[in-house]
Amino acid sequence: MVGYLNLILRLTIWFLLTANFSLQNIFIGIIVAFLLPGLDKTPVVLRDWLRVLGEILVAIPQAYFEAFEIMLRPHNEEDVTMERVKPQRTPGLIFLDIFLITFTPKTIVLKYHKDGWYEVHWVRRRNNR
């Protein structure tokens, strides 16, 4: 079941990149999704996928709120932090985590370290005291 989610994620990315739903492109996308390495390397829990998809749905209104907040009140401070990757993440879930962090306007993943860390750039509002 979860292998299908990896396949669907790859096809979704393919269709977002090509923006073409012709029969030929669908066929090419399926071939590319199967040829990309890493489909069966790590066991995946369906609960993890559902949790990440739920977090993405919550991030959509949060992204709009942060965008308006940045426009209305200046954010002058920048910060770079290291955040730990959740344990036992597959490449597909790591991609979705990076997408989730980068989706909101105040944060972006600068680098993914293979030893299990994200380097995250934050834009913050300076506290006036």
Task: Please give a handful of descriptors for the protein shown.
single chain, 129 residues, alpha+beta, Ribosomal Protein S8, Chain: A, domain 1, three-stranded antiparallel beta sheet, 3 strands, 54% helix, globular, membrane, Cation_antiport_E, Na+/H+ antiporter subunit E, transmembrane helix, transmembrane
Q: Helices and strands in order, then pairings?
A:
Blueprint: H1 2-18, H2 23-35, H3 46-72, E1 77-84, H4 91-103, E2 107-113, E3 117-124
Antiparallel strand pairs: 1-3, 2-3
Helix pairs in contact: 1-2, 3-4
In words, what does this structure look like?
Keywords: Membrane, Transmembrane, Transmembrane helix. This is Na+/H+ antiporter subunit E. It comes from Floridaenema fluviatile BLCC-F154. The protein is of the alpha+beta class. The chain is globular and about 55 Å long. The model has no long low-confidence stretch (mean pLDDT 83). The protein folds into two domains: 1-41, no CATH class; 45-129, 2-Layer Sandwich (Ribosomal Protein S8, Chain: A, domain 1). Helix 1 crosses helix 2 (23-35) and helix 3 runs parallel beside helix 4. It has helices at 2-18, 23-35, 46-72, 91-103, and strands at residues 77-84, 107-113, 117-124. The termini are far apart. The chain has a three-stranded antiparallel sheet, covered by helices on one side.
